[in-house]
Design brief:
The structure is a homotetramer of 215-residue chains.
Chain A: H1 6-29, E1 38-43, E2 46-49, E3 65-68, H2 88-98, E4 102-106, H3 109-114, E5 123-127, E6 143-149, H4 159-167, E7 175-178, E8 182-187, H5 190-211
Parallel strand pairs in A: 6-7
Antiparallel strand pairs in A: 1-2, 1-4, 2-3, 4-8, 5-6, 7-8
Helix pairs in contact in A: 2-4
């Protein structure tokens, strides 16, 4: 991040406060318990990103990483003992390839469970649900398809398959699911990324519950 | 809405605060995540209605639409960037045909799941549950029947089938369910609409869970 | 209730605040949505009881009914528009027959679902669960048996079968379940009644979930 | 605990506040309803431990037991009417044998349910889940195995089998599950114990839900 005017600094502080508030909300929703999950957002001159391996509901604004446009940390001297997530390069790929303004990483039980419905499929499909319209550009008549990639022992090793998934991304999809792991979900800005995360959470909760109905 | 006395303006502000508080509660209950769902209430000279497509738990009193008795927005100049929901005409039909004082639109997973139990039925039936008495005029001995209408790609296209459902509404029913989508639920005033929404939520949660019991 | 000293009035106000706080907690737990459920407590000279048919999470201390030792309301003049619950005589029976100091009425989905496991049994049995020890006097080795009585269209008509159930109450049981309806749960004081309500809730949640396990 | 400097007293008060805050969180997560569950932490010169048999979400800092290095209570004179948990010797064993800095006892429904999947196995096994990495030293490729011991009527009688379980503890396991009862979970410090408790909770919720999927 570059030097900023007082005004953009105020905006930056507001954005940091919002990210911390959302992390608290995500914790209560069960998306980032066990220090999992994360959030990042594009800001003028770079990005903000939550630290890794800490209780997300306790993260304070001054503990967020600031990164420049090449995803290099610029405030590490002030973040003693905090660690950038291994999934930073994955976030970078999504920003680069999808024109995202914000990316959320969720470990929700509902989403991981949904990746287990058909263990050989490379896609999870949602259809015939009004909630699909909560994804930008998607309509109720769509078969909304989200790619599933296999998990790897280290998060940084997901990059190749994530990149391929982004290349074959179906129209309107704003997420990549990682089997046995969670999901990367994005939007134009942080509130859209949040909306998309809530929609995919709803869709997976529904899919899991509907699978249990006698039919 | 027409010009108001200072007193009714105070009442109006109280009502707006209550609506915003309830939207926060509905968000936490999972009824309006992903910016879905909504609430409206009849006030002297017109109606109040939550904006569409925004995070409902963040809506502030001054962001609620004010509409006159013909459901025309009267405060749009002050609501820059906000959009009235496509379901406004549906709300208008319910006010007109049911003598409602408040209407809630919920996207609850439990309610949508309940519309999937019998995919060809045009009615969802609840019986033998004390909670049914939470619906005004309903008794424990009732077979309480709620109409289900099919979803349409655009919310405004629900109007014809919603109107027909309201015409064939069973005694005491205070809701129309939309398959794959959610429900419109109403009451004499906002607290009764809330009570009815909680009762239908409970009944659907129960029906879904009971369907999973071995019998 | 009789005339009180300033000190016991202060105690009474504290008790009222606690009841309102607990009602908020019970609402969030799903025990008294749709205005259902309730709570009452024995105080010097009589009882306190939550009003019926109102949103329980909004009840304020001054809206609680005060009753004398014969369960006659003594503060009705100050409770305009509020209604005593039809289940007041049931609460009175429990106080009289069980030496209770506080009674809770819950409409929890988990408890109602548990009354449906064996629809002909007059008893629900819990065993082999540490949580049973949360009931006063109960041990891990107990088969802890709670009576189930059938529901009636009007709550006041439950009195005869409730009384019979209290007469045949198994050792250590502190609840009567009402099929399709909910439960009456009690304790020596309000915190013990709350503890017992949480234990029965846990036991029913577990029983329902375990019934879904493949075995 | 020994006499302390003003500085370490301030630290101690902070730690007590944190424990009370976490107990409130655990209550809302359903880990210590019905007065069950507990938490303890190693501090200079001894340990802190939550009292037994009280509503955990209401515990105040001055109600925490202070114990010396031999697990003898040193502040009992100030804790009138409070009782040390019968599981104190179990906590002591875990501190001694595992080098733990904090131990949590949870009664979560999800964990107890998970102990019922295979009622004869002495181990619960988790595999192929990213969340496993939330346990210190564990990797995604691990078959992460947690010992299950049978419950006993009195908590203090668990000590022998708990000790044996700790002796045969698989690499990286930071928990012992007690069938029909709950779990003891630990970490180097209180935040790691909390992280581990959240991870085991997640893993059990997932295992229970996945068991219900048609496959």
């Amino acid at each position: 991040m570059k030097t900023r005017s007082p005004e953009s600094l105020a905006d930056l502080e507001q954005t940091k406060l919002l990210l911390c508030e959302l992390l608290g909300n995500f914790y209560r929703l069960g998306w980032c318990t066990g220090t999992g999950g994360g959030i990042s957002v594009k800001v003028p001159g770079g990005y903000l990103m939550a630290p890794s391996g800490v209780a997300k509901e306790y993260v304070r604004p001054q503990e967020l990483f600031e990164l420049d446009e090449e995803f290099k940390v610029t405030n590490s001297s002030r973040l003693d003992g905090l660690r950038l997530s291994e999934c930073a390069p994955l976030f970078a790929s999504i920003y680069r390839k999808c024109g995202a303004g914000s990316v959320i990483h969720t470990h929700s039980v509902a989403i991981v469970l949904a990746t287990r419905h058909e263990t050989k499929s490379e896609t999870l499909c949602f259809e015939r649900l009004e909630m699909i319209k909560g994804i930008r550009g998607a309509s109720y008549l769509d078969r909304h398809q989200v790619p599933i990639i296999p998990n790897t022992p280290r998060e940084c090793d997901l990059e190749a398959s994530l990149t391929r998934a982004l290349d074959r991304l179906a129209a309107n999809a704003h997420a990549v699911f990682v089997r046995d792991h969670g999901a990367y979900i994005w939007g134009r800005d942080v509130m859209e990324a949040k909306r998309h995360a809530e929609v995919y959470e709803w869709l997976c909760q529904f899919k899991n519950a509907a699978a249990g109905l006698r039919s």
